[in-house]
User: What shape does this take?
Amino acid sequence: MPYNLIDGKAIANQIKTEIAGEVAEIIAKGGKRPHLAVIIVGHDGGSEAYVAHKAKSCEQVGFRSTTIAFEDTVGESELLKEIDSLNNNADVDGFIVQLPLPKHISEQKIIEAIDYRKDVDGFHPINVGKMSIGLPSYVSATPAGILELLKRYDIATAGKNCVVIGRSNIVGKPVAMLLMQKAYPGDATVTICHSRTKNLKEICREADIIIAALGRPEFLTADMVKEGAVVIDVGTTRVPSEQTKSGFRLCGDVKFDEVAPKCSYITPVPGGVGPMTIVSLLRNTLLAAKKEIYPT
Ligand code: GUN
Assistant: This one.
């Protein structure tokens, strides 16, 4: 079957142009430049690359961006102090704390310390709760990016069997919630699978849409996919490579070469969901700057 490649990079560029236009309008009217701050702890290669990419993307759309870096020896109380300072900094519209954090720091405590009105990652329980019941909220970036791709490619979701592999708080759970909501994209019949699921292959073979978000390179193979399915690959595992300058390449959760010929639509890695994640964060920051979700 000739498959359609979902070009996340192209869509992300299109959306960046749209956001840059809005920023230019705000500035022309004498408004404040949207400002995103990012806290990063330690030197995880993936996180550092991702944060650098965020800063560059902010610049591209005309946002101000601030990166606050801590060594991985930082204490929880010092981190909480920085969060308090960002919560009270009127120039900062939104901020995120890059995950994962070192083991001695409670991620949940950190997430809950962020003012939910500045939580552009959409990780605070208030935003997660509001999202779950369909109220305006910051929707976390990867799920929002996936829905935007489905929308921009006009992919039908109503009544479709959608299988999400992976139950993380960042991707699996929220994307499942969004796909079951009375909306477009949404109205799907959603099944969430994970490491304890029985008959995973059989369940996947019934799926019209598969979202692979378990973080295991090339996990989804052709025998798990029905002809004509839509496959969204959220995997971004860094694997050693002699072919790249960095010494790494990104590997998705889908065995692309064998799965793609069975698909109607499929996202590549890199260039699929990844670029959309950053753009969703930019969009949330713009919403924060415009106070659209939380007016006060
Ligand atoms: N680590 C991996 N993805 C994300 C994300 O979307 N936000 C944050 N803060 N950390 C992450």
Remarks:
- Residues 96-99, 121, 141-142, 170 surround guanine (CB under 6 Å).
